[in-house]
Amino acid sequence: MTSSAEPVTSHRRVLTATTVGTTLEWFDFALYGALAGVVFPHVFFPDSAPAIGVIQSFATFGVGFLARPLGAAFFARMADSAGRKKAMVVSLMLMGGVSLAIACLPGYETIGVAAPVGLVLLRFLQGFCLGGEASSAQVMALEYAPDGRRGFYGAMVNFGNPLGQVIVSVFMLTAAAALGEDALKDWGWRLPFVAGALIAVVGYFIRRNVEESPVFIEASQVGARTRRPLARVFRTQRGTVIRLILVWLPNTFLSYVVSTYALAYISNDLDMSSSVTFGLVLALNLCGLGLIPLGGSLSDRLGRKRVLFCTMAASLGGSLALFPLLDTRNTPLMLLAMLLSQGCQFLSVGVMAAFFAEPFPTAVRYSGHAAVYTLNNLIAGSTAPFVAALLLSTTGTTWSVVGVLAVLYGVGIASMATLPETRWNRFASNHGVEDDDAPPTEEAPVTAPAAR
């Protein structure tokens, strides 16, 4: 007899729906990051000195991260009470509207100070939407995943991160070649935001036909609900949330140093064209398309912790070579610098979705994942480009940035040792309790099969 919780939607359709939406979200978010160091100082902060304009632009970039926890809190109750699907659809459509609004926003020369103010507000809304989208899509895919495949399924959702950045790089390289640097900075940068709004409409029609997560349906049938899921996570599993954040801080900081700050460094400090910067990002993220699924698959076979230990140690080593290789101004060596640092971090990203979700029961799984994901990005993602630019301006050496990375990786690897392996934790039978005053039932480990 077919269980009422058995999924109606195929695994392929779920992966398509979650990945397409996540790609769009990251396309919009990464597009802003790519433009923050190259175009936005010219459009929204033209009266500032070049270095100050970049710092102002990166400060605006960080506003999106400040909004992520608020978005996560708003969508937490929706996702853990009304369902993962509703949170995915609503966040996607809001993101599309914000993308269109940024495309239409006049620059400083047209409306004065209202331009950067409007940019800050729209960036805030962009982060708010991403705070709901990322966790809902990842949790949906994980709850549909077959046993022993959660790492790969979560990785395929995060595959949307480099895919979105690949699309951004293709857009910017094409626009720079077809329009020229001046036209790109004047109006060409608006075109991909318009495209993002159109893609949101396509994503809506794909997502609305996906059935709710079977694990969530089963939890609803047995009454595993909570009225305040986010509050419950911090009341009962606060230590887990803190340790997961500490583990992931260095990966996030490194990612935004390479993908955002390094673009401004190459363009402004090394005086190289935007075509070089976007070309490097394109090549880097094309490699990420293969590395992220590989990381997820390896974690299904070897365990989450083992893969993360290896990739984080390799990323630390790569970060030491990052700026010396960039300073050569030799394009192949500059690409090597990015691959040695963020290439290994891509393998870590393949583990991330499962690593963040598996410690939490169904009743609060979205809330737990979102708390770790958004707070981590608030602490490290929002500050990384700004801190890197400030450190270079203050100390005059990029080794100060590397020093911060080394400390973060040391703390992250030490925190990893305090966490249990979660690869075989149950999802289907671990939903949590309904009573908000009782602690959630911890995930019971599943004994690994003797032979696979």
Helix and strand layout, with pairings?
Layout: H1 11-36, H2 40-44, H3 50-82, H4 84-104, H5 108-111, H6 114-144, H7 150-158, H8 160-179, H9 181-186, H10 191-207, H11 214-221, H12 229-236, H13 238-269, H14 274-302, H15 304-326, H16 331-357, H17 365-381, H18 384-395, H19 399-416
Question: What does it look like?
Answer:
It is a single chain. This protein has 452 residues and is mostly helical. 77% of the residues lie in helices and 0% in strands. It is built from 19 helices and no strands. The chain has helices at residues 11-36, 40-44, 50-82, 84-104, 108-111, 114-144, 150-158, 160-179, 181-186, 191-207, 214-221, 229-236, 238-269, 274-302, 304-326, 331-357, 365-381, 384-395, 399-416. α4 runs antiparallel to α6 and α13 (238-269) crosses α18 (384-395). The longest helix has 33 residues, at 50-82. The two termini are 27 Å apart.
Keywords:
disordered C terminus, 452 residues, globular, 19 helices, single chain
What is the overall number of helices? 19
Largest sheet: none
Radius of gyration from the alpha-carbon trace, in angstroms = 21 Å
Q: Helicity level, as a percent range?
A: over 70%
- The assembly state of the depicted protein chains is single chain
Segments where pLDDT lies below 50 for 5+ residues? 1-8, 433-452
Q: What is the chain-wise order of helices and strands?
A: HHHHHHHHHHHHHHHHHHH
Helix/strand-derived class? mainly alpha
Distance between the termini: 27 Å
Q: What is the average of the pLDDT values?
A: 81
Strand content: under 5%
Shape: globular
Total strands: the figure is 0
